[in-house]
Amino acid sequence: MRTQATAIALGRGHTEAALVADEGGLGIPFASNEAALELLADAIESAGLVPGSDVSIAVDAAATEFSEGSSYHFRCEGRTLSADQLIAEYARWVRDYPILSIEDPLAEDDWAGWVTATAKLRDDIDLVGDDLFVTQRARLERGIAEKAANSILIKVNQNGLVSRTQSVLGAAKTAGYRTIVSARSGETEDAWLADLAVGWNAQQIKVGSTHRSERTAKWNRLLQLEATTQTRLASPWSDARRSEQHRFEQRATASKTH
Q1: Is 155 a catalytic residue?
Q2: Which CATH superfamily is domain 56-257 in?
């Protein structure tokens, strides 16, 4: 699919399509955010896979980076949105594309926006708090109390202690939050994070693209654990969530047929 994405991007005039970004993804300058989603969906189909069934999309919005006060600025599109308008934009993306997860959809201190987004989208996708929680127990507890987000990114070096990080993960699980153990920028080919994610029975791991060897090392370690130990890598998605993605697949087919 990576090759398909590059070929499609080059075919659409993106001469920088082969540029590899920090965590191994393609660094492509798009005219709009939705253009990136369109390319991903097209690449999935071009690879002979079914969007929403074989492959789905996870978005890391990092909204703190484009927030100013109470507004959100899509600079490349020349648009300024309120939190409610941004949430409506996400809802449309989820309806039109096979998106299963959005990380940091609102700014790290926009608690009201997070509560609204969670109320509207929690049944459709994972709303992942990274900047929101920064793997800190006090911020997670506030999120649980206010019903902000339904998933948390877990980073050991963001917290500082392995034992304290595990306690955050445990508290999230107890509250029904989905847990995602994550790598950081500046990674090496050491694959210990894969062992940690499996040992902690986290539902997901986030380590970046297979473009780069320090990222691929973690994926290879997961495959090794599955092949050589009694580790079983189970699907993190519930039957209800899979059903929703099947409905997306049916909607996408209907839109092409009619």
Answers
A1: yes
A2: Enolase-like C-terminal domain (3.20.20.120)
